[in-house]
Write a structure and sequence with these properties.
Structural class: alpha/beta
Number of helices: 8
Strand order of the largest sheet: 3-2-1-6-7-8-9
Helix content: 25-40%
Largest sheet: 7 strands, parallel
Number of strands: 11
Low-confidence stretches: none
Order of helices and strands: EHEHEEEHEHEHEHEHEHE
Radius of gyration: 20 Å
Amino acid sequence: MASRKTPLVALVDSASKMGGVEFSTLYLAQRLDKTRFGCLVICREEGDLPGRCRENAIPVVIVPLPRSRSTGVQIGRRRLPNPFALILNALIFFFAARILARELRKLKVDLVCTKGLPAHFYGGLAARLSGIPCVWHVQDLVSERLGSLYPMILGRAGKVLARRVIADGSTIRDQLAPFIPAERLIVIHNGVDIDVFAPSVDGEATRAGWGASDSDVLIGNIARLTPWKGQDYLIRAFARVAPDFPASKLVLVGSPVFDKD
């Protein structure tokens, strides 16, 4: 990295639609110190994230890559593992990594930062094939429906493919800690734009739109609407306490985004 005046950092994101990971990719690219680092975002296809990056003068490179398969099958309300998808994904990640590695070498990238679970695998492998150091920014808690299997797969891969692993919360860190040395695993919480999320911001119009008066206690949940985010637990909990607090309201904000159901 000393060979360049400003090291080039590639943020490799596995999605182009705007989810929580993608917003953090955008914010990181915006806030990275331009006097110290060059930065570009790599996506597999066009979408909201590349569009927003260009609006903010952030370079974007589109590298078409094969898509991984879901490792689970939904049967009613139960989600069961799909072992064939695990095997197929290993092959897909290998071919994707080779394609991406060629692009990383062509762009003369100095550091890779992967964003999103699939990108950790193919992005980390691409960086290793290219001899480029890689940092994983892990913002997903993997399923434990098969005990430690999925955390073990992720953790052992991270130990091999990443020089450092950043977790955005202690729960994710604890899930990876049995497999990644402590000196390579760190928690950095997601930042908050205090100009937008501040007590001084007038929320009266928004509250009125939700039918909440000044005296109401308004509870908000902002997240992708999908079973593993757990909104159903919040709804059940609110239903138990709402009769005792008639001036309270619960608002769910979000959409399926990546899931079609």
